Amino acid sequence: MTTTSRRIAKLLFLASAAALPAAKTNTSTIEWGPCNQTEVNTTGTAPAQCATLPVPLDYTNTSSVETLDLQLVNIPATIQPCKGSIQFNLGGPGATTRQDLATLGYAFLNLTGGEYNIVGFDPRGTGNTLPFSCVANELEAQTMLQRFTQGGNASDTALGTTWAGADLTAAMCKRNGNETGTLIGTASTARDLISVVDALGEDGMLRYWGLSYGTTLGATVASMFPERIDKILLDAVQNPHEYYHALADFQEWTQTDSVFSSIFTSCVDAGPEICALASLKKTASQLEDMYWNFLYDLKYKPIPITDVNVMVDYTTVKTFVVDLLYSIDGWPAFTNILFAIFTAEAENDIATALSNMLPATTTTTLVDQTLPLSSWAGIHCGDRFPRTQNFPDMLAVYHELTNLSHTFGDVLMAREMACARWPFEAKERYAGNFGAKLPRSPMLLIGNSGDAFTPLTSAYNVSRAFEGSAVLEIEGFGHASISVPSSCTLEYVSRYWKEGRLPGEGTRCEVEAKPFGNVTWAEIFRRQ
């Protein structure tokens, strides 16, 4: 991100987390039991247990007795005696935790040495935990989906339409989510982490591993409650200053274009026997230029897919590309699609290739499809301090984002504009400084050199604020260390959880998982 705005009025500090005492919660033991399989499907996962925990609905209202039920999942330690529990947040904001944590349970047990319980909960505003929705019916849901998928550069009028639509979306979210929209902020979720610590009845200390948005949550809880932290790992680190105090998450997108270009470089390096696109005998730069030329043509001439009555346009392709940058797993399929497009003899052949970019068909209602968008907006927009009703302000944001990322900058505008016009604020927003000296073990931060969404720069920015912390660089492509299998990562991460020992300054991990390869974590774990 660019230079962070720190212009915070004194009144905001009066409402900061530091001004509020840590809430006392029920310290009784959590009663774990079988998971409801319609909510957390544990078929084929590590053995998992579920529970609910009542916590204060509004931590800022100390006289209130209202509670909400956190929905928790636990994957028990495989080695005894157990050293306690590590809480996880796998990203977002707006994403649930329980199902993904159960699915990844075996991996996290291995990465942490098997001596800790793996615990997580669905954050406020997600799943069944104080759900936040901007829509009341299918028509409103359809409208919201259309507005949020509109690329800011998809047409000559798209940016103005997106700005007007953001005002309508914000008003709709206030109308339908007003009862919960102020109670789902990150500071409240940070307090929920401490409430879970108290209820676990262990040593009263938080052990935490946060990924992506989970790093902002982690930086928040470590700054609010440094005395309650045992060990904390931030993985795929966001810039928390910009998360709260800027009109967009600028730094988040500074590596996106270079990672996208690496798809073409990796294809050429792999050769035509592995990557068909390389058989066109073009340089990586030439292949990428062919992609951009095709995309610009698509802006003015979308391709109809008559079999399913759907049109593939500029925004469809951009959205598809963003999804595949989360890991290298989708790179072979993407380059195969491009090869089919670039060698097509007729428009029907192009349509057939593009059909592979369409989202999978689903029976999920439109209302349910909007829930992740609603949750994202409710949490992030409610946390964000700056707002504006001035279109030129957002025009400047648009230009900065598109200068930072040709690949994705314009697609971000619908959500950033919605936040700019957001009609309410979280009751508690963390407005203090980030950083502290943690009492037991310094913080470990991890960043991938080829992460399209959280650049290494952010990890070093946060590390400088937490005394004694260290950054582990992973030399691979993907979002967060979990997306890049590596025996080196396993060694350093498991050592941190076992001994609290950090890697030395400048430590870099090579990875076994390479583009157009097939190495998995299961293979890495078998080698140990």
3D structure, described in words:
Keywords: Hydrolase, Signal. This protein has 19 helices and eleven strands. The longest helix has 20 residues. 51% of the residues are buried. The two termini are 38 Å apart. It has three domains: 255 residues, 3-Layer(aba) Sandwich (Rossmann fold); 98 residues, no CATH class; 102 residues, no CATH class. The strands form two sheets. The protein has a nine-stranded mixed beta sheet with strand order 1-2-4-3-5-6-9-10-11, sandwiched between helices. It has 528 residues and is of the alpha/beta class. Helix 7 links the parallel strand 5 and strand 6. The radius of gyration is 23 Å and the shape is globular.
